[in-house]
C-alpha cells in the first residue's frame, strides 16, 4: 500500500501496489500447492507402506488375523483414494486463469481441498485404530497394550485437529482477501 498526496483535495490517499499484491497471492498459492503436494505424497507413501506391511504380517502369521487383513485393505484403499484425488486436483489446476483473482481462486480451491483432505484423514484414524485394537485384542488379549494404543490414538486425533485448524485459518485468510478484492472492485 502506498500513501500519495492528492493536491486537488489536499488529502492523503492510499493505493494498492497491484504487482506486490499479485506476488503475495502467487506466494500463497505456491504455499497451498506445496502443502497439498507434501500431504498427498506422505499419505500415499505411508498408507501404501503400512498397508503392504500389514498384508505381509497377516499372510505370514500362522492362522492369520482378519483384522490385520481388513486394516491392510483399508489402508490400501485410502492410498488409492488419495492418489485419485491428487490426479483430479492436478488436472483441475489448468481451469484457473492467470489473473490476480484467478490465482487467488486457485489458492482458495487448493486450500479448500487441503482442509477437506485433512478432515478426512483425521476421521481415518478411527477405522485404523479400531482395526488395530481389535487385531491386538484378538491375538494377545493384553489389556495394557489396548489402553496404551487408545491413549496414542486419542493424542493423534487431538494433534491432527490442531493441524487441521492451521489449514482452516489459512483458507479463511485467503477467503477474506478475496472478499476485500471483490468489494474494492
- How would you describe the shape? elongated
Instruction: Write down the secondary-structure element order.
Output: EEHHHH
Into which percentage range does the β-strand content fall?
5-15%
Count of distinct strands: 2
Number of helices: 4
Query: Structural class of the helices, strands and pairings?
Result: mainly alpha
Integer average pLDDT: 87
Biggest sheet statistics: 2 strands, antiparallel
Through-space gap between termini: 16 Å
Low-confidence stretches: none
Count of distinct structural domains: 1
- Strand order of the main beta sheet, please? 1-2
The helical percent reads over 70%
What is the radius of gyration computed over CA atoms, rounded to a whole number of angstroms?
Answer: 24 Å
